[in-house]
Amino acid sequence: MKTLLAAIVFVGIAVLLLGVNIFFFHRPFPDGEISTNPQMRKRGIKCAKQKEMEMLAARHSKGKTRCDGNYSDACAGCGLYNKE
Predict the structure, then answer these.
(1) Are 79 and 68 in contact (CB under 8 A)?
(2) Which residues have CB under 8 Å from 77's CB, separation 6+?
(3) Which residues in 59-81 are b (16+ Cβ under 10 Å) and which e?
(4) Are the beta carbons of 67 and 80 closer than 8 angstroms?
(5) How far apart are CA 67 and CA 73, in angstroms?
(6) What is the 3-state secondary structure (H, E, C) of the chain?
(7) Contact 81/71 with Cβ under 8 angstroms?
(8) Which of 31, 55, 69, 74 could make an SS bond with 64 (beta carbons 3.0 to 4.6 A apart)?
(9) What is the pLDDT at residue 3?
(10) What is the pTM for the complete model shown?
């Protein structure tokens, strides 16, 4: 029983110490979202979705047409159409 009580007190103190800035100074919680964090944008870190959209845009802007069902040689390298 003493061990359980000591563990609960220890965890409570740890939570209070970890949350001092948030609980007492009302500072915002650190932004961990990659796409909206200014520090990550400053370092050039991008989320996977944004990176994939940039890669697709670059692939389609190299003079290739979009794959719209008319499968031509221009669409062969886009990954949506496997030319046999």
Answers:
(1) no
(2) 59, 64
(3) eeeeeeeebeeeeeebbeeeeee
(4) yes
(5) 10
(6) CHHHHHHHHHHHHHHHHHCHHHHCCCCCCCCCCCCCCHHHHHHCCCCHHHHHHHHHHHHHCCCCCCCCCCCCHHHCCCCCCCCC
(7) yes
(8) 74
(9) 95
(10) 0.36
Token readout for 25 is 């100074």
Please tell me the distance from the alpha carbon of residue 75 to that of residue 29, in angstroms, as a whole number: 45
Q: Which sequence spans correspond to the domains of the chain?
A: 2-75
The per-residue pLDDT string of the chain (84 residues; one tens digit each, 9 = 90 and over) reads 999 999 999 999 999 988 888 778 877 777 777 777 888 888 888 888 888 888 888 777 765 545 555 555 555 555 555 444
Take residue 43 and report the two structure tokens written for it. Answer: 């370092």
